[in-house]
Specification:
The chain is built from 7 helices and 5 strands. Helix 5 (87-95) packs across helix 7 (128-141). It has a single domain, classed as 3-Layer(aba) Sandwich (Rossmann fold), CATH 3.40.50.2300. With 150 residues, it is α/β, with parallel strands linked by helices.
Amino acid sequence: MSLEHASSPVSVVVKSADPRFACDIATALRTRPRIRVLRPDQEGRAEALLVLATELDDDTLSLMGGDGRPPRARGPRVVLVVRAVGFDQLLRAVEHGVVSVLSRGVTGLDQIALALLRTRAERLHLPIPVLAEGLQLRHRTQGVDGTKRG
């Protein structure tokens, strides 16, 4: 990554099933000098996509786009802010280009901004609580032998 690229603002599009919430977060992010918020119709020019959701379902995945191509070939890297995510859902999200997952209940604007800046590192960043919750959910739904319970 060039020094110029590292010091230039990260271009971001904010999406949510709740347009008012997306607008509020986008407005707040505009105050951050290292983040440049784009309009939703400019997603093709964005480096990062911030997706805000209550749960990770098919509607949320559709907000992310993704079609089986590698994330870099298909568009912006995705930062997902979600209330709850299971392990299997987490795997699907990564397939849709998610590089960072933040817990909606405890994440503030500073953490969102940092996650958006980290998208340039091209590494997966999954905080321990998100992984732990996903693993606990998976263990609760599986028996000792690894088969799913009724």
